């Protein structure tokens, strides 16, 4: 039974709650239906645990920004908290250790202390390999899935370890396999069963694979970190790992939460958070660009004009490319890459929109309901860069643009992700023309549901543009 004045929602059954009435393959439509019945704040029982859903820009901002001190926790004692030993940053609860680590990453990623090579150079370096892959497909069909996945993964590896890996490298293959399997577990019934029925946690059921996968990734990352320790010069960091080791030296035994043990999980967290998200957004982008030739051509006109005489694009060029900026933001809006954000948790007893929310309640901000919210967008249900342009053709960002969520937990890699999306899209559009194959039938824009939304596999035709 719901606590008094708790957000309304469907009646559940003992033990399973409402799970049997949700389409677990893709519950987004069910959540939409519940919103229409119960309003912007409703609750659903996942097993015996009540979970509160937040919908629409106004409600989500009120919770995550205005009442940030009440809503910025993370649920604890769940499968992935236990499997990661709570040592990363994504699932770490609101508190000094999360705050210190978050601040450190933001500072380091903002180019302070990453060594001689800036973030931009690292991205542009990796793009050369992407160009080669596309060049090999000129006049043929290109399946961009693996290419974008590797580009995003390698950019993070460049930031973390100053290294890139060949596309068929064994180490990357193992890590990617572990991530993919764990994302599937994170999104499937075994995680729910583990979380809601504690007495089955030690049984040899499929969720044990999540523990094995994390151990495998930890061992690989630990080996890499140990190799870097042999060649590092203290005070001259080459990458994120060196910066962290310098920070450890500086702190000594000051009782802070920094430790080598923590670094391993931290590096893995950044890798997992930065790979599928960015690559799925790029995949969605090129699906729309290859099926909307007039939008692609208008981007190319702007790119040619602004970059005339320049060897390669720089991130600053975005300020002279309002149309390109609008297209990339529109791609992020329609790709809705992280549809349900990462679950939050109420840090103390609180209230929202007149409802009582007890401490420890799991909170899910449904970002999907903001990305296509009626009244917030000129064209909420179509792919149209006009959503980000004013009458003078200038780039404007509506308040409802929040694919990275909002508040103190807002995506820590937002700056890096935006730089990647801009530099990769502009470089590829400048050099190549992408078209939808005549015999491929109508494009299917419906994504495959998961922790991140993925476009269905597709192929595009590639031609070299006249220089
Ligand atoms: C298009 C790409 C990306 C999208 C759409 C995206 C989206 C998100 C979202 C929605 C969250 C949850 C925020 C919340 O809890 O309310 C998040 C968290 C996070 N993201 Fe991203 N992200 C992207 C790229 C990246 C990259 C490249 C990195 C790596 C540097 C990264 C690192 C993180 C981390 C560490 C968190 C957890 C932050 C915390 O709990 O304090 N993300 N991201």
Automatic annotation (TrEMBL):
Keyword Cytoplasm: no
Principal location listed in the UniProt entry: membrane
Gene3D superfamilies membership: Cytochrome P450
Subcellular localization(s) per the UniProt record: Membrane
Binding positions (heme): 411
Keywords in alphabetical order: Heme, Iron, Membrane, Metal-binding, Monooxygenase, Oxidoreductase, Signal
Pfam families: p450
Record bears the keyword Cytoplasm: no
GO molecular function terms attached to this record: heme binding; iron ion binding; oxidoreductase activity, acting on paired donors, with incorporation or reduction of molecular oxygen, reduced flavin or flavoprotein as one donor, and incorporation of one atom of oxygen
Entry cofactors: heme
GO cellular component, one term: cytoplasm
TM stretches of this protein: none
Alphabetical list of InterPro entries matching this protein: Cyt_P450, Cyt_P450_CS, Cyt_P450_E_grp-I, Cyt_P450_sf, Cytochrome_P450_fam2
GO biological process, one term: xenobiotic metabolic process
Record family assignment: Belongs to the cytochrome P450 family.
PANTHER family: CYTOCHROME P450 2F2-RELATED (PTHR24300:SF327), CYTOCHROME P450 508A4-RELATED (PTHR24300)
Entry protein name: Cytochrome P450 2F2-like
Taxonomic source organism: Sphaeramia orbicularis
Phylogenetic lineage: Eukaryota, Metazoa, Chordata, Craniata, Vertebrata
